[in-house]
Design a protein that fits this description.
Two copies of one chain form a homodimer. Chain A has a domain of 137 residues: Tetracycline Repressor, domain 2, CATH 1.10.357.10. Chain A is built from nine helices and no strands. In chain A, helix 1 crosses helix 2, helix 1 packs across helix 4 and helix 5 packs antiparallel against helix 9. The longest helix of chain A has 28 residues. In chain A, 38% of the residues are buried. At the A-B interface, helix 4, helix 5, helix 6, helix 7 and helix 8 of A face helix 4, helix 5, helix 6, helix 7 and helix 8 of B. Chain A binds a DNA duplex (30 and 30 nucleotides) through helix 1 and helix 3.
Chain lengths: 224, 224
DNA sequence: TGGAATATTGAACAGCGGTTCAAATGTCGA
DNA sequence: TCGACATTTGAACCGCTGTTCAATATTCCA
C-alpha cells in the first residue's frame, strides 16, 4: 500500500497526511469499483470516476498513475478479499464440504456487496501486460486453492471422479455471472442469491450421481 | 436479412447480386465474431474487423451502418441458433432430463465452435438503446425457454423445489463463462468441455439432494 | 505566522478509432 | 460496347477520452 519513497523521515505530521492520502485513495477505489460494475471498464470514463469520487478529473492522477492502475488496485483488493476468505476457512476445521460452502458464499458477497463489492477482477484483459501478469498470478492462486478444495470434497465424499479444473471453472462462472444479472433493487437479496447458488452448486439438480440418461451423443438440432 | 427497399423490381441479375452481397455480409459477421471473441467488443477496432474480413475499413459501411449494427447481427445470429436448438429438442420427444442435456450441450457448441462460434451475445450493454431492447427481448425468450425446461425437469424428477430463475442463471453463467477460459489450443476439446460441464450441471457434485451440512449461516472470514 | 510540501483544479493537449466521402473499379443487362 | 448500379478504396475528418500542466488553495510544522 505505502508507495511513498521512504527517503524522508516520517514526522507525526507526515504520517497523518499519508494516512489521509490513503483514505482518499480508498474512497477513489470504492467509487471506481462502483462505476466499473455499472458500466464496465471500457465505458467508464475518468471523468465519471472523478465525479463518483467527488474530486476533479485531474486530481485522480495525484493518487494513481492512470486508469490502468485504478483498475489494477480494484482487482488486487478484490482478490485479496477472496484469498483471505479461502484462507480463513482452511483454519476453520470444518469438513471440506462445509468449507467449500463457506468459500462459495463469501465469493458471492465479495462480488455483489453494495458497499464493498467489486467486479473489476473480471476485466483482466484491459490491463497492460506487466500489471496483468501480477493479477493473473494472484487470480490463479485463488482458482487453484478453490480447485484443491473441490478435490478434497470429491475425495472425502467419495464422489465419482470428474475433471476438477472444469468443475472449478463452472462454479466460478456461475458465481461471477451474477454481476451480469443481479440488481440490488430486484426481488432477491444478496443473501438469498448466495444461498440458492451455493445450494445448487453443492447439491446439483438431480439426486443421482450421473444426470440421467446419457442422451444423444450424436449431433442434433442447430449446428452442434 | 433482406434490407433492400423493395421499390425496384428484382430482375434475375439483381437477385444474384443481392445474394452475393448477403454472402459477403455473412463473411464479415463471421470475421467480426471471431475478433469480438478474441478481444471483446470495445477492444475490437473497425480496422481489425476489416482486416479479418479481408476488405477495407471503409467498405464495411457498405454492408452495415456501423460497428453497433455488426454487433447486433452477431448477437442476433447466435441467439437464433440457440433458440433453434431449444425448439428442436422440444419436438424430439425425450424426457425433460434428456432435452435439458441436449440444450446445454448445444449451448456450449454454439459459443465455442471454432468456425461458427460467437460470444458476442454477451456484450449486450454495448448496443444503443433501440437495438438493445430487441436483442434483450430475444435473449429473454431463450432464457425463459430454458427456465421452463428446468422447471419440467424438477417436476418430472420430483426434485426438491428451488428457485428456477437462479438455477437457470447459474447454468447460463457456467456455460457462458467458458469463453473466458476456453482456448482451442488447450488440452480439452469443445466436446469434452461440453460433456464435463453438462455432467456437472445436470448431476451436481454430491449424491444427496441437499449439499451436506448447512454450514455456518453466521458470517465468517473476510467481509461477508 | 511564514514557508514548504501537499492537494486540487480546469483547461488544454494528443491520439486513437468510428465514420464519411469523393473517386476509382468492377459487374451485369441490353 | 455502353450505361447504370454495386463494390471497393484509403485518406481525411472529428469527437471522445486519457492524460498533462501550470496555477491556485490548503495543510501543517517550526
Amino acid at each position: 500500500m505505502s508507495n511513498t519513497s521512504s527517503l524522508s523521515i516520517e514526522t507525526p505530521g507526515r504520517e497523518r497526511l499519508r494516512r489521509r492520502g490513503d483514505a482518499r485513495r480508498l474512497e477513489i477505489l470504492r467509487a471506481a469499483g462502483r462505476i466499473f460494475r455499472q458500466r464496465g471498464y471500457a465505458q467508464a470514463g475518468m471523468r465519471d470516476i472523478a465525479a463518483a469520487a467527488e474530486i476533479s478529473s485531474g486530481n485522480l492522477y495525484h493518487y494513481f498513475r492512470g486508469k490502468h492502475e485504478i483498475l489494477y488496485f480494484c482487482q488486487d483488493r478484490t482478490l485479496d478479499t477472496m484469498l483471505q476468505a479461502l484462507a480463513s476457512t482452511r483454519s476453520s476445521g470444518g469438513s471440506a464440504l462445509e468449507r467449500l460452502r463457506q468459500v462459495l458464499t463469501a465469493h458471492v458477497f465479495t462480488i455483489l456487496d453494495d458497499v464493498e463489492g467489486t467486479a473489476a477482477h473480471l476485466e483482466v484483459d484491459a490491463l497492460p501486460a506487466d500489471l496483468r501478469t501480477t493479477i493473473i498470478c494472484k487470480r490463479d492462486r485463488y482458482e487453484s486453492g478453490l480447485r484443491r478444495l473441490i478435490g478434497e470434497v470429491i475425495h472425502e465424499e467419495r464422489l465419482p471422479q470428474r475433471d476438477p479444473r472444469i468443475i472449478t471453472r463452472a462454479m466460478l462462472g456461475a458465481l461471477n455471472w451474477t454481476v451480469r444479472w443481479y440488481r440490488p433493487q430486484g426481488p432477491a437479496s444478496v443473501k438469498m442469491v448466495a444461498r440458492e447458488l451455493t445450494d445448487f452448486l453443492m447439491g446439483g439438480l438431480t439426486a443421482s450421481g450421473d444426470g440421467g440418461a446419457a442422451g444423444a451423443p450424436g449431433s442434433q438440432g442447430g449446428r452442434t
